[in-house]
UniProtKB/TrEMBL annotation:
GO biological process: pantothenate biosynthetic process
Binding, ATP: 30-37, 148-151, 185-188
HAMAP family: PanC
EC supergroup of this enzyme: ligase
InterPro entries on file: Cyt_trans-like, Pantoate_ligase, Pantoate_ligase_C, Rossmann-like_a/b/a_fold
Species of the source: Polaribacter pectinis
Pathway named in the protein's UniProt entry: Cofactor biosynthesis; (R)-pantothenate biosynthesis; (R)-pantothenate from (R)-pantoate and beta-alanine: step 1/1
GO MF annotation: an example: ATP binding
Subcellular location: Cytoplasm
Residues binding beta-alanine, per UniProt: Q61
Note: The reaction proceeds by a bi uni uni bi ping pong mechanism.
Protein name from the UniProt record: Pantothenate synthetase
Amino acid sequence: MKIFTTKQDLKSCLSEFKTKNKAIGFVPTMGALHEGHLSLIKKAKEKNDIVVVSIFVNPTQFDNVEDLKKYPKTIENDIKLLESVSCDVLFSPSVEEIYSENIASEKFDFDGLEHQMEGKFRDGHFDGVGTIVKTLFEIVEPNKAYFGQKDFQQLQIIKKMVKKNRLPVKIKGCPIFREKDGLAMSSRNVRLSNEQREIAPFIFKTLKEVRKKFGITNISEINKWVENQFKKQPLLELEYFTIAEEKTLETAETKESNKKYRAFLAVFAGKIRLIDNIRLRN
Ligand code: PAF
């Protein structure tokens, strides 16, 4: 695997592939890689000639300084994992390399997607995500880019950005990868204490129950039920639970048969914030 830390070196390596018309698959990450990331890389390997992974903990998408400071950094292990799935190129730039002197986000209009859920609770988060993903797309110029559905709102926002800016890249959303006990894989999971880790599968268990209830119960009853379930769990504090339409991500109050819905939630286990979601069937 080739490793680059500067845009220039990466671009000159990739230009060789581009002149040969090779398809480039791209998986942007913030490192602390796990099986979920590896599943995206494997998918990218299947569908492209070469795969580029970036590892960059993007400061502009963090609304919480402590969360940024404590974001796990495991570069040596990440390199081993990338080699184990035959990743071709790793781009791991410094903050200065990406932002120079000005560590700030561009302002985006994602047609309202940014005002829902994560956008309500993490100020400026999606401007930060849009800024870094657009910047990385400009550097790597991939044919296809792969994102996990755990961050479903992020995935929809990136699709919107690509469409609005007519960026020449296809965005591929990939299924959520879960631990055996159902906990959605996340780089933040390593920060959970043993006690928090033990209780965390409750999140997916609740979502699966929501999926069952969705066919037979109205949405406001489901909302109340979820809130009550979390009230009984002192180690998990529910930040939000919402059933939303997949396209607009607007909170749904009633079901319409021609629309697709998902249930989304964010939960604090101590200071560690976990998100998850599940597709619902009418
Ligand atoms: O999902 C992530 O890990 C990050 O938000 C991303 C897409 C790599 C941008 O920093």
